[in-house]
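User: For a benchmark we're assembling, each entry needs the component sequences followed by a predicted structure for the full assembly. Here are entry 17's components. Please fill in the structure.
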Amino acid sequence: MGNTFGHLFRVTTWGESHGGGVGVVIDGCPPRLALTEADIQPDLDRRRPGQSSITTPRRESDAVSILSGTFEGRTLGTPISMMVRNEDFRPEAYSEMATKFRPSHADYTYHVKYGIRAWPGGGRSSARETVGRVAAGAVARKLLKERWGVTILACVTQVQDIAAEVDPETFRAADVESNIVRCPDTEMAREMVARIEQRRTEGDSVGGIVLGVARNVPPGWGDPVFDRLDADLAKAMLSLPASKGFEIGSGFGSVLVTGLEHNDPMRNVAGRVRTTTNLSGGVQGGISNGETIYFRVAFKPVATVMHEQETVDIHLENTTVKGRGRHDPCVLPRAVPMVEAMTALTLVDHALRHEAQCRE
Amino acid sequence: MGNTFGHLFRVTTWGESHGGGVGVVIDGCPPRLALTEADIQPDLDRRRPGQSSITTPRRESDAVSILSGTFEGRTLGTPISMMVRNEDFRPEAYSEMATKFRPSHADYTYHVKYGIRAWPGGGRSSARETVGRVAAGAVARKLLKERWGVTILACVTQVQDIAAEVDPETFRAADVESNIVRCPDTEMAREMVARIEQRRTEGDSVGGIVLGVARNVPPGWGDPVFDRLDADLAKAMLSLPASKGFEIGSGFGSVLVTGLEHNDPMRNVAGRVRTTTNLSGGVQGGISNGETIYFRVAFKPVATVMHEQETVDIHLENTTVKGRGRHDPCVLPRAVPMVEAMTALTLVDHALRHEAQCRE
Amino acid sequence: MGNTFGHLFRVTTWGESHGGGVGVVIDGCPPRLALTEADIQPDLDRRRPGQSSITTPRRESDAVSILSGTFEGRTLGTPISMMVRNEDFRPEAYSEMATKFRPSHADYTYHVKYGIRAWPGGGRSSARETVGRVAAGAVARKLLKERWGVTILACVTQVQDIAAEVDPETFRAADVESNIVRCPDTEMAREMVARIEQRRTEGDSVGGIVLGVARNVPPGWGDPVFDRLDADLAKAMLSLPASKGFEIGSGFGSVLVTGLEHNDPMRNVAGRVRTTTNLSGGVQGGISNGETIYFRVAFKPVATVMHEQETVDIHLENTTVKGRGRHDPCVLPRAVPMVEAMTALTLVDHALRHEAQCRE
Amino acid sequence: MGNTFGHLFRVTTWGESHGGGVGVVIDGCPPRLALTEADIQPDLDRRRPGQSSITTPRRESDAVSILSGTFEGRTLGTPISMMVRNEDFRPEAYSEMATKFRPSHADYTYHVKYGIRAWPGGGRSSARETVGRVAAGAVARKLLKERWGVTILACVTQVQDIAAEVDPETFRAADVESNIVRCPDTEMAREMVARIEQRRTEGDSVGGIVLGVARNVPPGWGDPVFDRLDADLAKAMLSLPASKGFEIGSGFGSVLVTGLEHNDPMRNVAGRVRTTTNLSGGVQGGISNGETIYFRVAFKPVATVMHEQETVDIHLENTTVKGRGRHDPCVLPRAVPMVEAMTALTLVDHALRHEAQCRE
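Assistant: Structure for entry 17:
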């Protein structure tokens, strides 16, 4: 249970790290959207392991196939099934995981929940699972762009204590892609890369913050009281591996100021209702207000480190375990397309919900 | 749409601030749970306006009636309908709201989404809507306590820059209820109350942080990949009015340390798998690991302030608006039972999901 | 669980036969629909017990209150909560039911499922539960009529072996309401009434068939492969108390003819695609084709009869039980508004789904 | 939308008749069930085209692959993805379908709903879509058998006017499989086969009735008021291609008798509550009562016939169309495993729901 996201644009992902492959079924995508693998592959390439010196060296081409739901290059309105084969099988690299729980991984919790566990590579809890999300997210982004003019972007703004100032309103995709850490501030990006490489050398890992933005979202999306747009974004982000926190607009910083300081004044600007500040982050009362939506997601440092750590084995004996083989010192660059994908999936679902309930 | 929470323990709330009342229907509550109004009223009293000098002075007795789903003091397994009448109607106090959008409220977004708006008192976006959540949450808490021994608590840990140190493992309900701001650190509580009263005098408002905890949750609850326990908690919390952020365990602080520092070592303690630290916050890979679950929720300062602010009216003319009448300087004390309720609703749903899928 | 119907126009009913009342919450109704109690009461009056000599004599005024979701006579887009108080409490009339299971009622199955049972009046399994459905159905019918011009009707076409010929295309509401059995064929209606009265005199009961129709449904509603329009209608009808069968269009009769005989030829009629016969019943491949949708629902004879019957008590001892007090010899006249309501709820949900996915 | 079935054992099918393949994802299957392709292939072989002289001659091996959700031959509790490649591509055989709507097929309704249509082979409306259902149904049947001892069977009982008497309590799988029409009454089966072959020679087709049964279902499954077990079975059956009607127990025949005649008397038999007749069909008040569940499904004659028929083309011009190429004179033998699969999927979902809500 729990592998479907969305209410009208329903995405179901499947696949383990070391099984036959990973994939996704989208149910509810509107018909007649132009769609081929070429629309999806670029985002998968940005999510792919082995893309740079600061990510996991696992070798996967991650070439996507669309198995259903399109005809002559257009969506049919029927389920879109997409799949990527697993290639870099190395179960032997994980043999120790068959009996030992890696600290702060999901080994123990899967074991205790299901009473069985696909130990090679982390099974379903592997970041490999996000292939399906990113593939579906690419479809959602295309639809959002073509039908509503919505643009979705994400970038890294912080690695440990190295923080960049990034304006949610103005940074561009090209800036994000200009460096391997995906931070639009080139200077800070250089520092971030150095830090990650240092940690990699130490056999350690780092976390940081990803900023997600959605521009040009029309006012009116979001379904209070439970399915507020910000609530669904929070769920979407916390469903990503290694994420530990979410804040929208002023976020945790909002607690320091007063109501008078925090409120976003409203003005008629060229016939549209605008706010002159945007501490709300584009969402008020759970509904988009037409301003840029922006939020931050905290990712903890990757749990796999090349050091001996205390743990327990499947017989509940105390022991130690040490990360071996492929070492991913920082999930952040690959988290950027994941955040974009989950943002797109959240928004497109609410876009369709809004059409259903509120358009005459 | 969007007014139902949960998959197996399904809660649907209804009601506007100034209509006939507010209420909730629970579908999926197990049968034979002892339940009367006396189990629910105490939590509603903690949520009630007018309970202290630092909350809104609206006068509501908030007496709950159970209309269905119980028989001779026990639940039937059928829908439990509960209702509270609205009493303190003062639409005249809101007449200005009929034509003006209050900044950083949901007035404009409801207007633009639905093309109609119950302007007296904020309608559905009022905190009054949480009556139904708290009533349902009381049922969920009782079930969690009786069937699985789970205890849920929340408290205020920060008001603006006044921060208390609270240990998620040890603070008690009695400590929380020992003062009107609901912070278990009595000394800091005094400062917090003073700050809130000062802001109230200034016609202004403050925000802060609520800590939520769930103790004694068995390992195994949570449904990756989308319905992770932490993801559903994040959604639950961001669905509360005025919340702007959520972090679990180490949260945003996790980005500063390395993987080696952040990992929670595991040990066999008295035959149980335990972690010797709990930076994970009781959830790993989206599934509870048996440690205390704790998280923090940021609440922005209440948007209603007794000052003239720039805004726009329903004809899109620039104008100003000033809060009048009942002034709630701080939502935090009343947010405590709300956080507890949403925590309980999230956990009980996952408890039942776990029974369905994983118990033989 | 199981008390919500619909995906976008979500209806949750609550209430037992002898509790505080019965009601419904609608989540997802579009905003700005004119709606007051006067739109709902007429359908409830047609469902009401005690309306004629051939239905149950229970006395209920069934006056509905709208508790939320409207403002100044229009829907808000927020949950619409409606309620009817129970008035004719006579638990003493049911005291024997506290310990004995009535044959072919739901007494035993509720007892064994939930381990507890609201024995007075059948609790949740009482036809009283349909109050909420009929109230919600009235809202759905209004929306269908105003927005898409769809008309929904039902009538009785058979009581035991007394069968009327009714043309789904042409019978009118006034014909249906012209007699107490709700059969538009006045002559057969007279026979039906006589038969029901005879059975009532005998302390026995009868079943029959209700024809449901939806006219002017646009082509394109229905969501294969599982949520076909006919599949959702079948579920809707079988969810009504005492229903035992459903057939659409040619139904069970279709098995007797060949494919060539059964196919509906297609013609361009005045610029629209029409079929020259309608054995399909207005649905092809699970999607409406623009022709009149019609189907038949079989209702068994009411299980309560004034005769001693063999049964078992809650201690599993063999015993007998005899219906006492209020005797409903035929559910059919009251089933007519129930069938209309469930038809409307099914169609309106698919109408909104169609808007969401297929409208550009 | 509409391609997912079930609430806890969730099945999502995908695939068109002539795309890359067809498949299914199961989310919510309990962990540790022994499962390999060998458990699934036999049911797919019974569904496969080309299996006998009285079904479609399309050539498909329909070899299933399990792509995820199992490890070392056991289910993981994670999504089970299964897939079958399409092999017998012959789009040229369908070229006429590119521009003409076949009468009583879904060509026109898909065209009008989605504005695009995968015309080769009927796309998503092809019976080929049921591959995914049958594969998932095999998993559900295995779980039902192993965990609750439930047996599910179906058989053909009528072809046109040739009707066999089949006792739901006693017929065996071996009897069903003893002949190509899948009717356990060997003598009538011979007549049925002759009739189908005659119709095939005539280029025509026939329909009939499939009986579905579930034996040894424990009392207590089913979720009133909407998700009654019989209501969900009705939906499941009407979601199958070509089905036109559903009746449970006495079904449409129930309308002819009186309540006294229809009620199933109850007796304590060997310490269990039993009914001495079973007109209810094993379900009372929407909940299983421990008796054999049985129901009948009407399937219309296949719409493809080798005769010229009146129709309309995509430009709305009147024209004619004639079936060409592969001719399936009777869907019934292949409908048997489809009915079994949908029965299993319905029951297993309710089994898990019952565990969640009602087991202490």
